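sorry for the late reply, my laptop died twice this morning and i had to redo everyting from scratch. anyway the thing you sent over, i finally got around to it. pasting the sequence first so we're on the same page, its 483 residues, then the predicted structure underneath. double check i copied it right bc i was rushing
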Amino acid sequence: MQLLIVEDNVPDAELTVRQLRAAGIDCTWTRVATEDAFRDALLSAPDLIISDCTLPAFDGISAFSIAAAETPDIPFVFVSGTLGDERAREALKHGAAGYIAKGNREELAWTVRGALARGPSRHRRASDRCPPSAGPDSGTGSAQHLLARRRVLDETLQQRDSQAMTSIMLRRAPSPAALLVIEAQLTRERFAKLLPMANLEIDTVQNIDEALERLADRVHAVLFTDNIDLIRRARQLPSGEATHIVFVSSGRLLQHADALRAGANDCVPSDTRGEHFWTHVTTARRIADFAASLQLAVRDTDLLSTLDEVTSAARRHYFEQQFPREVERAARLSRPLAILMADIDHFKRINDQHGHQVGDQVLKEFCQRIGDGLRLGRDWIARFGGDEFAIVLPDTTASKARAVADRLCESIRSQAFSDQYREFSITASFGVCALDRVPGSPGDLAQRLVRAADAALYESKLCGRDRVTAGRIAGTEELVSRA
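ok and here's the structure:
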């Protein structure tokens, strides 16, 4: 078996290989720790990918996104101490073959064998798309794709982008769960036994470091702890603002005062019983219920604010928030980036002759044809307004972007648009702007890329429509391939 390991720590990678070989799994292996090296290694078609979650110059979620788009038939397994249960479940839902915590490596060989036995775990775009007539929820898949791309950007930019981290916390409502971090064993066991009786999901850890990791990864609605230092440090996390903290004390009033100053919302004696205890638990239950309702509201708001209701492309607001972050990601990783601007030729004539309902159907099918020509999990489309669209192509050079635009232009031209009453041909015009390497200090580069692509689109219109024109940004000629 040929194994690709995404890991910055060489001893950890060697330990993974030793464990597999000790379990009778014969393997050769390659270790990578950067995005460029990972992409190059994918060309050798490994049989399995094993990835850590957090690396200094890369991250496992981004690696998974790249593998899902470019090599969907290769099983992908996370072996990580920082991924967390919630994000692990999300990764498994989107096609990861397995997840193992670094402290639970005894399950590694079993998980690897299972991943190899199941074979391909994902499918290509053709089988993932919903038909246009799928009903009112047909845009949900598009929304999930856009939100997943936003999470990739969050993962890549989280070390520097404090505003992005703040927005993550605003978007991610607290989970309706309680984190239990109590050092006194008898008290911990008692609370762990009683709290589930109040229909509270309990997540139990025994040390501060693990507790802080859990809080950073998953925003718990309630925290029960007898450690004042943990309260203080939890409040310093972006997620700490959203957690209701209950201090479990040994009964001394001085401890209560210290806990409240550290940031606790409530105090409960460790030996409290009866009605007094259940009063505190009822409060925690109400907070958890509110967190669950808030999660649903945030999810619905995310979907509504992300998708254009006609085409299921991203809204312009999403584009204006996320495209500058695509530029920053490309700059940080020294990757190429391309943007296409496109609109439908003589679209007003379609509305005038056939009505706006037919015009909306044309917009939907136009977006579907564009989407069918893009990479799942990576490229994305946003509607600027009317019949104008932006198409974002991460990790795409100028020559490849031009080829994509030519192919999309042909796909619009080559097949008539039709409904049950009529059939007619349409064409589209495209403007392209791309950099083979985004410079390390992007500044206002996002706006300049958009303006250059828009100017190239306008030139396509002036030159007769139904064509592709490449735009340039002054001063970046050396960053563009000559194709």
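The longest strand covers residues 337-344.
thats about all i looked at so far, will dig more tmrw
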